[in-house]
Give the backbone structure.
Amino acid sequence: MALFVYKTYQELSKDELYHILKIRASVFIVEQNCVYQDIDDMDQDALHLWMIEEGKIVSYARVLKANTYLDEVAIGRVISLERNKGYGKAIFAQALEIAQNKFQAEIVKIRAQQQVEHFYNQFNFQRCGQPFMYEGLMHVDMIWKKQ
């Protein structure tokens, strides 16, 4: 059974932070062959969310309050370590719920890699702007509004 954990930066243990940074580097830098600065001075203001399955982290996301990264509440660094198991959907749904419950978000904005734009459409996110290069990959800004 999956377990979801979320903590502020201050609540993270050294081991939890190490594992978070390790999986982010393994996906965003190594797997996607993209050299960029993942440690971006926003983790300190984020809620870090991860999903544990069979004793190991299988997905991760961070939720940022408005005006930390973007003008609106934002979700970012969304990772699923095992594809096609529903972990990405599960972690993103939890992140969206946290954005609404912890930050009272009525609007959430994300900076999505363009090749996974369709993934975020499933959660009623809509593109708002033109594709652009960001952190070595094509991205699109997307927005969600509470119904």
In short: The CA atoms of residues 70 and 144 lie 13 Å apart.
